[in-house]
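Supplementary Data S3. Sequence and structure tokens for construct A.
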Amino acid sequence: MSTIKISENHQLGVEAAKRALSTFEEDLKKFGMRLVWSGHAGELKGTGASGDVRVSDHDVQVTIKLGLLAKAAGIDANRLKQSIEKRLRAALG
């Protein structure tokens, strides 16, 4: 199982950062994942992958665990990480 960890700094505050992540949430749906919020943390759920998103006053941390099904589907962890980093920067920028 591969684990992807990403941290993106911001200066928005917690609530504004969560609102800014709405475009990121839409992008996740394209990959068959959904984000379920509970306060300032969200749980990522999808076929072959799981993880979480944590929002603080100064950064957003994303952790994704790719299971065997994701690997079997040919998902490249490095390319996925780069894509998520790009989408987070766009959402928070």
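Construct B, processed identically:
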Amino acid sequence: MEKRSIEVEIFGHRYTLKSEFPEAQVKRVAEYVDGKMREVAKGTTSVDSLHIAILTALNIAQDYLQEKGNQEELLQRIKEKADRLEEFIALKMG
């Protein structure tokens, strides 16, 4: 897939990103990051964009790792239920 330039605005700054993903998806990601940065900025006295960006990255990483853990737990539960179902079927089939 060919990369194309997509213009976005994050925390008051315009960026031209090159991406092979659909424009709507890139803009949605940029809007998410912008929203998170604004949320972090409200909770801190810092006006330094770099400081806010790092705090935002830490918050997003925490959210990601939490969701990844939830997904792994869910997959483990599904596997356990599938294993029990296979055992049940094997017992019934004789």
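The mean pLDDT is 96. The two ends are 52 Å apart (CA to CA).
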